[in-house]
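Dock flavin mononucleotide; give full complex structure.
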Amino acid sequence: MKVLIVYGTKYGCTKKCAEILKSYLTGEVTVISAKAAPASLKSYDVVFIGGSVYMGKMRKEVIRFCSKNKIELMNKRLGIFVCCYTPNGTEGFIETLFSQEILSHASYVTCVGGEMNYEKMNVIYRKMFQALNKIDDFKKGFIEPQIHIEELQILAEKVMK
Ligand SMILES: Cc1cc2nc3c(=O)[nH]c(=O)nc-3n(C[C@H](O)[C@H](O)[C@H](O)COP(=O)(O)O)c2cc1C
């Protein structure tokens, strides 16, 4: 069984999740950035796609990978994970990130939490979150994210079963 995990990350959290996911998989597993993904998916039986969310949008390289490989992906066993601060199960959230076609084909789609790497962020982002944290409405709805390792394990099990 050949498995490909394709990720899109800005500060490394999604790559970390891809490696955690790999630890729950057997067979020949390749973890690769969407920016360096292979030209063809022909030799893979299973594909996992993971990406992080910025300003309500999935990372561009992940979207590009999905549209470029749309036809091949429809013939693979597929799992999708999202790194973000939006809690898993938030109604309608995942639907804004990927096409309906790809979401319906996937065996399992989930938000696995994330990490706010404040020290790696540029000054503008850091200042933006400092400012947002002073707004009561934002503070009320914002929970500092962490990686939900158990969700990655469930993803591995659901797609591989
Ligand atoms: C500037 C900025 C904007 C973000 N926008 C969103 C957002 O709109 N929705 C969300 O759920 N998470 C958002 N996040 C949280 C990231 O998706 C989260 O930190 C994720 O773990 C980053 O993963 P990465 O290091 O792989 O890029 C944002 C984070 C930053 C720094």
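Observed: The longest strand covers residues 46-54.
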